Amino acid sequence: MKNLYSILILLWIAMPIQAQETIQHDPNSTWFTLSNRVNINKKWSFSNEIHERLGAFLSEQNTFIERPSIDYHLNNNVEISLGYSFLSNRITPSGTNLKITTYENNIWEQVLLKHKISTVDILHRFRQEHRWFDVFTKDNNDNFNKDGVDFANRFRYRLTMVLPLKTFGNKKVLFLQAFDEIWLPQTDNLIPKNFSRNWFYLGVGYKFNSGTNLQLGYMNQWDVIATDTYKSKPIIQTTFVKNFTL
Questions:
Q1: Which in 46, 70, 82, 129 has the greatest CB count within 10 A?
Q2: Ordered domains of the chain (ranges, CATH)
């Protein structure tokens, strides 16, 4: 029972956001993630993520993400990564029924810290993003046209906790996973400007072996609209992880 305390901490972190006034939006989003890693040796690895994010319960494409990185393993508990992300977003400007495709490219640095509390694995992920994204303006005919590319910095912190529920033969494990992530836009000097987004996730997974697992969970995304007002997006998320060792 002691192992559940860490999960309860995550629930406690998310409660203040849930208590605010919210505007429901897109209640049937479904996200799919494929995560791969190739372990080159004990110090270096190459990772890649592919994200397909759908709205309106599988009938509407929202976002596609490709996210490769090179990772350096300082030791078993510290990992440093340098990565790149390509994002394609289908958005609907406020007050219209139009669909616009926007693109973003970003470069990011990341530090991952790992430790354990009893049998619970704890991960702290610190990610610094440098973003180049499309900017659109509306003309006199209510058409939206690309008006160049803007730049911004953003910081993200994720706390993840993994609790094994049952261990089977051949090292197969049923586990519970929870995470909470905050998003902080920054100035050009990397000073946080405000809080813009929160993710809270709770799901179950099945580990087939040390390099392969499948997860299914529920995630809620809160985006800041105004002071004490948030847009809420419930999401069903499926993640498949497959790692390789050379």
A1: 129
A2: 4-12+23-245 (2.40.128)
pLDDT, one tens digit for every residue, the chain (246 residues): 555 555 566 555 555 555 556 666 665 789 999 999 999 999 999 999 999 999 866 667 889 999 999 999 999 999 999 999 999 998 777 667 778 899 999 999 999 999 999 899 999 999 999 999 999 887 777 777 888 999 999 999 999 999 999 999 888 999 999 999 999 999 989 999 988 999 999 999 999 999 999 999 999 999 888 777 788 889 999 999 999 998
DSSP string, 44-59: EEEEEEEEEEEETTTT
Which residues have C-beta within 8 Å of that of residue 79, sequence separation ≥ 6? 71, 72, 73, 111, 112, 114
Beta partners for 224? 230
For residues 198 and 16, the answer to whether their CB atoms sit within 8 Å is: no
Work out the end-to-end distance of the chain between its first and last CA atoms, rounded to an integer number of angstroms.
39
| Pair 4, 118: CB distance under 8 Å | no
pTM score? 0.90
Residue 172: what are its φ and ψ, rounded to 5°? -80, 140
Cβ 172 vs Cβ 205: under 8 Å: no
106 with 76: CB under 8 angstroms?
A: no
CB atoms within 10 A of CB 82: 12
